[in-house]
Specification:
By secondary structure, the chain is α/β, with parallel strands linked by helices. The chain has 14 helices and 13 strands. Helix 4 links the parallel strand 2 and strand 3. The longest helix has 21 residues. It is globular, with a radius of gyration of 23 Å. The chain starts with a helix and ends with a strand.
């Protein structure tokens, strides 16, 4: 079998000229262009959640690249997050708790509501980026029973917690370590690897589409080879619990084709990283303050050079350089070996057009956890109303109320909205909130 069994099957089918008396309704006739290759679970095409043919073969090939039991998702890391939490919670009695850092993706909160577990959050010192130490994790694990520890690594600003000693703590307490590695699929191909599975995580998700050359929605669920908790045998069922019964074969082909690319990806990455380091050095020498240690993420503290992050993002966009994210303080750009030398030069040029100015001293409002009034499940499933931010004081938050990006909750559903929370929402440009109808 080749490295691309899914692509090979679909291309052969497209070339066969068969009368398509099955879904989808476009029948392979081009409208956007890829329709001839957009199929469904016909005979020979396998089925994602009962895979035993070409899809399972492709997943196994991917697993050889990642050194893990690997499963495909055509619905991004969001599906994988729900699946890995479902597997962790299924091992625990009713009332299961998950220990997590607060900078979770909002999908984590939706999973809490759907699965009925209660998140317990580590003390936080920030919003998008938080510090997580092995000692803090161990202190919490000593205090009570948890069915999992859940971390985001890398986080949205490019910080990577020290996973190896945290994983060692989790092993001592017999608690699985789950990692949202959506932004870090490429970390496997660094030398040495910084991938969570290689650093001791028991299970993690990777968004292939975020940093690898894959279509949007392409993602992996990885289970460690030693699989101490039997996750691999239950992974397909957990994915099926939340996944669409009509997964995109275009996305599956993208993951399949990526298998061949990954053969030489370490070399591509090794050739590109010095260019990124040179870019970062040039910007730092010009006075720009960089944040985070993730190799392919360029995070700039714009305030340190006198600019709001949003203004810096607009300046870049006006010159044809489109960043990933910005807020009042930070600008985030995500790079990959698919970026050309011209792209890197344009970044340098646009930054070079702006003079350094006196720093903006207005810091983001301090992060404080809100008073817990309802469980996450109670809040998310409650009767809701949407109000202007100014009318939300003392109400109870019902939805994360933050878009994607960054999809990281400013306040957790079920927490009371106080003056400090209102200041944080205002700082990040949120003007209305979804709150529970009952004000108490």
């Amino acid at each position: 079998m080749t490295d691309t069994p899914i692509c090979d099957f679909v291309r052969a089918y497209a070339a066969s000229g068969a009368a398509r008396l099955h879904m989808p309704g476009h029948k392979g006739v081009p409208l956007l262009g890829p329709e001839p290759f957009d199929i469904t679970e016909i005979d020979g095409a396998d089925a994602l959640y009962e895979a035993h043919g070409i899809i399972r073969a492709s997943e196994r090939i991917a697993g050889t690249h990642f050194g893990a039991h690997t499963f495909f998702s055509a619905e991004g890391s969001s599906l994988c997050i729900r699946a890995m939490l479902a597997m962790a919670v299924s091992r625990a009695p009713a009332g299961a708790r998950v220990l997590a850092a607060r900078n979770v993706h909002k999908t984590f909160l939706y999973a809490a509501a759907l699965l009925g577990f209660e998140p317990v959050f580590l003390p936080a010192d920030g919003y998008l980026s938080v510090s997580v130490s092995p000692a803090a994790v161990e202190k919490m694990l000593r205090q009570g029973d948890f069915c999992a520890v859940y971390l985001t690594a890398p986080d949205y600003l490019g910080q990577i917690p020290d996973l190896a000693p945290i994983a060692a703590v989790c092993r001592r307490y017999g608690v699985p370590l789950l990692v949202d590695n959506a932004h870090g699929a490429y970390l496997k191909f660094l030398s040495p690897s910084l991938h969570p599975i290689d650093l001791g995580a028991d299970i993690c998700c990777d968004s292939a589409h975020k940093t690898l050359p894959a279509l949007t929605g392409a993602a992996y669920l990885h289970v460690a080879k030693d699989d101490r908790y039997g996750f691999a045998e239950n992974a397909k069922d957990a994915l099926a619990l939340f996944g669409s019964t009509s997964p995109s074969y275009l996305i599956l082909q993208s993951l399949d084709r990526l298998n061949a690319v990954l053969k030489t990806y370490p070399e591509q990455l090794a050739a590109f990283l010095p260019k990124v380091e040179a870019l970062k050095s040039t910007l730092a020498a010009a006075g720009w303050t960089l944040f985070g240690r993730e190799p392919l993420k360029l995070t700039v503290d714009a305030n340190a050079s006198g600019y709001p992050g949003t203004a810096l993002a607009k300046h870049l966009a006006d010159g044809g350089v489109m960043p990933e994210y910005s807020d009042q303080k930070y600008l985030v750009c995500m790079l990959s070996p698919q970026n050309s030398d011209r792209d890197l030069c344009r970044i340098t040029d646009r930054f070079g057009e702006l003079p350094q100015k006196p720093p903006i001293r207005t810091a983001p409002p301090p992060f404080l956890a809100g008073e817990r009034v309802l469980s996450v499940r109670e809040a998310l499933l409650s009767k809701k109303t949407r109000l202007p931010l100014s009318d939300c004081r003392s109400r109870v938050l019902a939805e994360p109320s933050v878009g994607c990006p960054p999809a990281v909750p400013i306040l957790i559903p079920g927490e009371r909205i106080d003056d400090e929370a209102i200041a944080r929402f205002r700082f990040y440009g949120v003007g209305t909130l979804s709150v529970t109808e009952n004000a108490e």
